[in-house]
Design goal:
The complex is a heterodimer of chains A (about 170) and B (about 290). Chain A is α+β, with helices and mostly antiparallel strands. Chain A is built from five helices and six strands, in the order βββαβββαααα. In chain A, about 30% of the residues lie in helices and about 15% in strands. In chain A, β4 and β5 form a beta hairpin. Chain B is an alpha+beta fold and about 290 residues long. In chain B, about 35% of the residues lie in helices and about 25% in strands. In chain B, strands 4-5-10-6-7 form a five-stranded antiparallel beta sheet. In chain B, strands 11-12-13-14 form a four-stranded antiparallel beta sheet, sandwiched between helices. The chains are: A alpha+beta (about 170), B alpha+beta (about 290). The interface between A and B is large, with 40 and 39 residues. The structure holds FE2/S2 (inorganic) cluster (2 copies). One FE2/S2 (inorganic) cluster (FES) binds next to loops of chain A.
């Protein structure tokens, strides 16, 4: 049998790629992936809001797809390739999407921002020239209590433009 | 907001998974994308002793055309199905409905089989499978069996799946060439649970009369409901809509919850039925013109 097992209360060693680097840490089965990323691997850009899949704050890229990290467990992420907001651009720099967020004031408190940036990254890769409606549809998976969304939509549309022009 | 402690098992093959389930029985739950089970675990609405992670099983991610049906592996990711040409061409109803299933971010992890296994009364995928006349393929250590969707969904969150079975695939009959499709739902916010949803398949003859009609609603009763449309065959597509919507709510007993009372659900259902019937007829018309 090739069943991987970790019993309740015991800790498994999780090895994964985080923002391009091989990392490992310990997790018991019930540890949420978001908590593992924050507390074990110090990826504090992963924000935790509702902890049941609704708000989108914890969204990260797993194998390139934008997904919730609060409704999966660290043990499930073993061997995966994970990118958090820290990995979107080189430290100290911002990519086109992030610059557009800054320019359009697409964040106020910033709590929702890392999740939205991760979602938008995957979304723009799949939909390089989105309509406003498509952007809003993608954004419906996130809750922002500050901005009213208009500035976020504007920023993502501008970034799409910039990215497709190769900026 | 943290789950109770559980044992975690991650088999690599279906055979290993069903062997584990057979041993652990009611103590274990299969975990796929976790888009429903994850929240329920975190909210401690369920407290399983063990989880069997089936999200990495080999051979459950296929979308293939097999004669007159399309077979989707249970672990097909919803967004992959949404982007699949085979689904768009051969199972148009599912392609219409998937954008309504949760959000981009949950569809990136949620699976077709997971939604069917969970059987939320308002869920889109079980409704589509029911209207399409599809089949659920289940496997246990004892056997493999196929259950028609129209029998599989028994009640809210209750299906004919035995505790030692996992869903391995869904079978969708290929859409008849001239059939048109409609899907619509109403939720408080896009991506929320539907208060009511409706799905329809219609075929028209050359005079625009209804040749064949399948209509289903979800979110209204505790499972997807098929409406008996026998009396509407032969009716003019332009005239049938209103009667059909009255008829569709005649026998139903709507659920009541904090979002909608029975009366409101009935009102929504009537609107949705008219809408999906109209859309399906227009779609059928379009497809017929294309074929001619
Ligand atoms: S914290 Fe994960 S969706 Fe809210
Ligand atoms: S910027 Fe504050 S929640 Fe979005």
């Amino acid at each position: 049998m090739s069943v991987q097992t970790c019993l309740a209360g015991q800790k498994a060693t999780i090895e994964l790629t985080l923002n391009g680097q091989r990392r490992s840490g310990k997790a018991e089965p019930r540890l949420l992936l978001c908590d593992f990323l924050r507390h074990e691997l110090q990826a504090f850009g992963v924000h935790v809001g509702c902890e049941h899949g609704i708000c989108g704050a914890c969204t990260v890229l797993v194998d390139g797809r934008a997904v919730r990290s609060c409704t999966q467990y660290a043990v499930q992420a073993d061997g995966r390739d994970i990118v958090t907001v820290e990995g979107l651009a080189e430290a100290g720099t911002m990519n086109a999407l992030q610059r557009a967020f800054a320019k359009h004031h697409a964040l106020q408190c910033g709590y929702c921002t890392p999740g939205i940036l991760c979602s938008a990254t995957h979304f723009l890769r799949e939909t390089p020239a989105p309509t406003e409606r498509e952007v809003r549809d993608m954004l419906s998976g996130h809750i922002c209590r500050c901005t009213g969304y208009a500035s976020i939509v504007a920023a993502i549309l501008e970034a799409a433009d910039a990215v497709s022009r190769g900026a | 907001m943290k789950p109770v402690a559980f044992d975690y098992h991650r088999p690599e093959t279906v055979a290993e998974a069903v062997a584990l389930l057979a041993d652990l029985r009611d103590d274990a739950m299969p975990l796929a994308g976790g888009m429903t089970l994850g929240p329920m675990l975190n909210l401690r609405l369920v407290r399983p002793r063990a989880l069997i992670d089936i999200s990495r099983l080999a051979g459950l991610r296929h979308i293939v055309q097999d004669g007159d049906k399309v077979v989707t592996g249970a672990a097909v990711i919803q967004n992959d199905a949404l982007r699949s040409d085979v689904i768009r061409r051969q199972v148009p109803l599912l392609a219409l409905a998937l954008p309504w299933v949760g959000h981009f971010q949950t569809r990136n992890r949620g699976t077709l089989g997971g939604s069917v296994a969970h059987a939320d009364p308002s869920a889109e995928i079980p409704l589509c499978l029911t209207v399409c006349g599809g089949t659920v393929v289940l496997r246990s250590r004892r056997r493999e069996r196929r259950v028609p969707a129209r029998r599989f969904f028994v009640d809210a969150l209750t299906t004919l799946r035995e505790p030692d079975e996992i869903i391995v695939a869904l079978e969708w009959p290929r859409a008849p060439a001239q059939s048109g499709w409609g899907f619509a739902e109403i939720a408080q916010r896009h991506g929320d649970f539907a208060i009511a949803a409706a799905a329809c398949r219609a075929t028209l003859d050359d005079e625009g009369r209804v040749k064949d009609l399948v209509l289903g609603i979800a979110g209204v009763e505790s499972r997807p409901v098929l409406i008996d449309t026998e009396n509407f065959r032969g009716g003019r597509s332009t005239e049938v809509g209103k009667h059909l919507s009255d008829h569709s709510v005649a026998g139903v007993t709507p659920m009541e919850d904090h979002v909608a009372n029975a009366e409101y659900r009935i009102a929504l259902t009537k609107v949705l039925v008219e809408r999906v019937f109209r859309d399906a007829c227009a779609d059928a018309e379009r497809r017929r013109n294309k074929l001619q």
